[in-house]
Structure formats: C-alpha cells, structure tokens
Amino acid sequence: MKLLNLGFLASHGGSNMQAIIDKAKSGSLAANLCAVISNNSNSGALEKANAEGIAAYHVSEKQFPGKVSEKIIEIFEKQGVDTIVLAGYMKILDKSVIEHFKGRVLNIHPALLPKFGGQGMYGMNVHKAVIEAGESVSGATIHLVDSEYDRGRILAQKEVPVLLDDTAETLAQRVLQAEHLLYSETLQKIAIGEIAI
Ligand code: GRF
C-alpha cells in the first residue's frame, strides 16, 4: 500500500472533497490531505479546507495573470502532492499541469462516460441531457485527465437508476451520493494497488 498525497482543485461547494477528507480521517482511505486550491475565493471548498486545517489557496487569473498553472504546480510541489483530485473544478486545467503530474490527475464526472461528456456537459446540463435522452440508468465516472476533456482512461463507474419522475435536480442529488462513495473507494483502490495509474 502506498499512501496517496492528495491535492484538490475545486470551484464550488466541495462536497466530494469533504467526503474524501472524511474517509481519510476515519482511516478507510490511505491518504494525506496536502492542499486545496480554488479559483473561487468564496468557495465552500476553501471554507471546508480551512475548517479542516488543510493548506488552502485561492489561485485565480485575476491574481496571477498568465501564471495560474505555474502557481498550481508550485503549490502542489511545495506541499508534496503526488495525486491531483479534481472535484468540481470549473476551469480547464492547462497541459503544463497535466504533463507535470502525468497520469496522476483524476476527475469525477456526474454521468456514465463516454456518454454525456465533452463540451457543455457540466452541472445540471448533464442531468437534463440524461433525462431528455430517456435513459433509465445514469451514474458517476472517475477518469484520468489528459489534454482532451472527459476523454482520459476510465478508472471506475457507479450506476444509479433514473426514476420516471426525476427532474435534473433530483437526479443530480442521487448521482452526487454515488459520487461521494465512488471517489474515495477508487482512491483507496489506487492506494492499495488494485487500480494502477
Ligand atoms: C459534482 O457533481 C462533480 O461530478 C462535478 O461537479 C460537482 C461538484 O460538486 N464535476 P461538489 O463541489 O463536490 O459538491
């Protein structure tokens, strides 16, 4: 088993990040929580990181024009990060970061990729599209990030049913519950070598 040294990138509430933190603290995930970076100074993710005593940074284009990627690499290196966890990060990660942490950048997507991925497929758009397509099953996907968005190797998926009376909102909630379980389960499998990255 190899302890993962996690660095998070998150833009919003950070509920996926929190679920991972909780598992690591309870001992069911072999991970150090090294740092959290957000592009949004008001994000729940930064608030949660501060409350947990995890090194938290606001890094945006406004503060560091043209240097966001450099800054992300610098912070994660300084904090000993070896695995990047994207958890609702709404910015496209530059190739330089992906190359620097090659094969060690993970993302979660709230649908069963390769379906319902790609351009414009984020947030509620995903769940609306699933419902409009008449799917009976949706779910969550953990995948590696390479330079093509939502196209990296799929590491794990968890299905959830789409119910007849679902709205995008009710489906999003059910998928989010699955995301919370799937992310830490997948990270633990990486830590114990059951999934190779
Ligand atoms: C999740 O639905 C995730 O799949 C998507 O963004 C959302 C983040 O939610 N990439 P949270 O910030 O973890 O609560």
Give an overview of the whole structure.
With 197 residues, the protein is an alpha/beta fold. It has 6 helices and 7 strands; from the N terminus they run E-H-E-H-E-H-E-H-E-H-E-E-H. It has a 7-stranded mixed β-sheet with strand order 3-2-1-4-5-6-7, sandwiched between helices. Strand 4, helix 4 (95-100) and strand 5 (105-109) form a beta-alpha-beta unit. Helix 1 packs parallel to helix 6 (168-191). The longest helix has 24 residues, at 168-191. 5-O-phosphono-beta-D-ribofuranosylamine binds at residues 10, 12-17, 87-88, 108-110, 176, 179.
Topology:
Elements: E1 4-9, H1 15-26, E2 31-38, H2 44-52, E3 55-58, H3 68-78, E4 83-86, H4 95-100, E5 105-109, H5 124-132, E6 137-144, E7 154-161, H6 168-191
Parallel strand pairs: 1-2, 1-4, 2-3, 4-5
Antiparallel strand pairs: 5-6, 6-7
5-O-phosphono-beta-D-ribofuranosylamine binds at residues 10, 12-17, 87-88, 108-110, 176, 179.
Give a brief outline of the structure.
By secondary structure, the chain is α/β, with parallel strands linked by helices. It has helices spanning 15-26, 44-52, 68-78, 95-100, 124-132, 168-191; strands spanning 4-9, 31-38, 55-58, 83-86, 105-109, 137-144, 154-161. Strands 3-2-1-4-5-6-7 form a seven-stranded mixed sheet, sandwiched between helices.
